[in-house]
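Much of our argument rests on the idea that a fold can be written as discrete symbols. Part of our work consisted of pairing the sequence of a single chain with a tokenised description of its backbone. No coordinates are needed to read the tokens, only the vocabulary itself. The record that follows shows the chain in one-letter code together with its fold in token form.
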Amino acid sequence: KPLTRTETAAYAHKKLKSGGCSDPRAVMPPAVCERLHSSSGGWPGVIDRLAMMALANAEHIPLLVEHIPKKPRNEQKPPNVVEPTPQLILTFKHKMLKKISLDKPRLLIGRNAICDIEIVHEWISRQHAILIRNEKSTVIVDLNSRNGTYVNAEPVKNHVLINNDIISLGDHRLKFVDPSATSRTTLRGAGWDDTTLAESIKDFRKGLLRQLKSTS
């Protein structure tokens, strides 16, 4: 289990003290501990390696932020670490109804029984909105619903979601929970464009039509 920022600093200082350092904080100031956590991901073995390299290469004390290399953008996550699946928390007038795992690339929201997230209410359209996911992000797209789709009280046609965003559909609320989604961005910045988004919705509707025909 990776350490938090506070735990990383405490861990590094404890290691220094056990090695005979009388004032670990003077050797490794808060800014250096912050970089150490960011670069190591909080994994103790990586913290040890980076700290030892920094101490070996430093020409003076205290250590500087530059002594700790930045984490490469394409660095892989440690083995066996699984990112939690994003979730939605559905509420109605402040009462929680259920939690929904976003474990599919596309989820349809509406009052129709074929919807992945079925919300039976007069203000909800039969096919109200759709959630579309890729490796980088989750996007909500309004499907020309009668009463609209809102994110954080703002009307949207499409919107890249980040952690704790609140989707409003009438009096129903869907809280988006994904701790890894922290940066507000545009469709293009999240790896989407209008064409790929439209094609994804078109493909989904074709599959939906086939499903309806098979059940009729």
Remarks:
- The first helix runs from residue 5 to 18.
- Residues 163 and 180 are 7 Å apart (CA to CA).
- The first strand starts at residue 87 and ends at 92.
